[in-house]
From TrEMBL:
Residue ranges the record marks as coiled coil: none
Gene3D superfamilies for this protein: Cobalt-precorrin-4 Transmethylase, Domain 1 (3.40.1010.10), Methyltransferase, Cobalt-precorrin-4 Transmethylase, Domain 2 (3.30.950.10)
E.C. code: 2.1.1.198
Subcellular location: Cytoplasm
Entry-linked PANTHER family: RIBOSOMAL RNA SMALL SUBUNIT METHYLTRANSFERASE I
Source organism (scientific name): Pseudonocardia lutea
Reactions catalysed: cytidine(1402) in 16S rRNA + S-adenosyl-L-methionine = 2'-O-methylcytidine(1402) in 16S rRNA + S-adenosyl-L-homocysteine + H(+)
Listed GO biological process terms: methylation
UniProt-recorded name of the protein: Ribosomal RNA small subunit methyltransferase I
Length: 273
């Protein structure tokens, strides 16, 4: 079986009983960093009897055939990353996809996740959220990425390097506005855990100083904008119809863009004739 297991973000005491058992019984352990994995096993006082292989981004594809062979042969392959859940902005996805394509047995040992931990600590509405992985490194790509999030109604979670945090927050102020609520979560579950909450402008000013550690950022979703009166949208519908578009199609396109009901706009258009 292929087993993906969440590992502690920092405090080894967050390791589940099932993770401890898996470390001690797995035939093969595919670890993002073998030294960090062995340090975790030592901290948990769990002897490792299986073969430990490196499984980081650069070798993930090359390791794939051998790990699949192990699962086909009836061995238990345990996949772990440095912290948190495998395949979530970490190695693991390709292996899971390949195993699933062959209908090989796969399971997951749930546990710590920086994404959900940051969400609940942010103090922001998080009943709906989206995860964006790591923020783009290049300035232009980062600006375009943030521009796509201007109207995103869900809370937004992403990872960032402490060395690029200031640039990213400065750009976020420019694109999303200085008053957009956010939280910067640093060193989650570790000795120097810190959560900074506030408007983007305030957080960007704080990040101008020295910031260290693993960083997870949460942005508040965009506030819903008031829909315009349907009567004001009728000229746009008529213009599209005049250009040859069917009335129903024109109504549907304009209503979707403006966030109003199609039936309401359709009736308003007919009544204005």
């Amino acid at each position: 079986m292929l087993v993906l297991a969440a590992t502690p973000l920092g405090d080894a005491r967050d390791a589940s009983v099932r993770l401890r058992e898996a470390i001690g019984t797995a035939d093969v352990i595919a670890a993002e960093d073998t030294r960090r994995f062995r340090a975790l096993a030592a901290a948990l006082d769990v002897p490792v009897t299986g073969t430990v292989l490196s499984h980081y981004d650069a070798v993930e594809t090359a390791r794939l055939p051998g790990l699949l062979d192990d699962v086909r042969a009836g061995r238990t392959v345990l996949v772990v990353t440095d912290a948190g859940m495998p395949a979530v902005s970490d190695p693991g996805y390709r292996l899971v996809a390949a195993a699933a394509a062959e209908d090989l047995p796969i399971t997951c040992l749930p546990g710590p996740s920086a994404v959900t931990t940051a969400l609940v600590l942010s103090g922001l509405p998080c009943d709906r959220f989206c995860f964006e992985g790591f923020a783009p490194r290049k300035a232009g790509e980062r600006t375009r990425w943030l521009a796509q999030l201007v109207t995103e109604p869900r809370a937004i979670v992403f990872f960032e390097s402490p060395h690029r945090l200031r640039e990213t927050l400065d750009t976020a102020v420019e694109v999303l506005g200085p008053d957009r609520a956010a939280a910067v979560c640093r060193e989650l579950t570790k000795t120097y855990e810190e959560v900074r909450r506030g408007p983007l402008a305030e957080l960007a000013e704080w990040a101008a100083g020295e910031v260290r550690g693993e960083i997870t950022v949460v942005l508040a979703g965009a506030a819903p904008s008031a829909a315009p009166p349907v009567e004001s949208l009728v000229p746009a519908v008529r213009e599209r119809v005049a250009e040859g578009e069917r009335l129903k199609d024109a109504v549907a396109a304009v209503a979707k863009a403006a966030g109003v009901g199609k039936r309401e706009l359709y009736n308003a258009t007919l009544q204005s004739s």
